[in-house]
Amino acid sequence: SYRVELAATNGTVSVPAAGGVTVTTGTGANDALLVIEGELAAVNAALAGLTFAPAAGFSGGASLAVTITDP
Length: 71
Prior knowledge:
The chain is mainly β. It has one helix at 40-48, and strands at residues 2-9, 11-14, 21-25, 33-38, 51-54, 63-69.
């Protein structure tokens, strides 16, 4: 299976619940660090609904680092 780490700076990320994807770090909603694992099609489906929300009242740069580990 694939492992995807999403690390947000000055905000949070969320992915929709998707069959075949396991959240191993975070909750899947409003996380600064979120790790999901699953087969390619399931991971792609989860990432298709990815959202980023900046921190409340924040003004400035924000980033999202994505690290993918394949089998």
